[in-house]
Amino acid sequence: MRCKPLIKRSGGVGLGYVFGNGLAVNAEYNHLSDGYDRAEWARQTEALHQRFPRHAAEFPDLAPPWVWPLFALAYELGVVLGVRLQRRWLLGRLGGKVELAGEWLTLATVSSLFVANYAFNVVSVIRPDVAALRGTLMFYVLIIGPLSGSLLGRALHVARGAVRP
Prior knowledge:
alpha+beta; 3-stranded antiparallel sheet; 5 strands; 56% helix; extended
């Protein structure tokens, strides 16, 4: 593993790793800096597109515009369901502490999100034409939206500290 520390003039610190096929991954932290300017970002993107031309042509930069309203509705549904579900497990609140009953849903939700994201990304790499189909995107959004939203809804209910009657 070839990790090399990287210190930027702008107060940034990071690590980089170069895989055997030439793909490089960088993790950076920039404190009180502007990060990359547009020209530097464009140079980095162009270098990736030249290194991997097949993938550059197949992956669009943004999802189609119709995906975001659908995701917002699915996410909102998940928030509402999350608030309702969390009522079962919130037993009480005393000061800054909240008492919760044990449950399995958090693990199942996070695991489902992981599997859905992994499966969609595998399909995106193997068959980008299938991943870009309207039905595939709708299926993906209708799975991850409510699951993600349910986590927020449950957290909001715990933050409010409401006790079930």
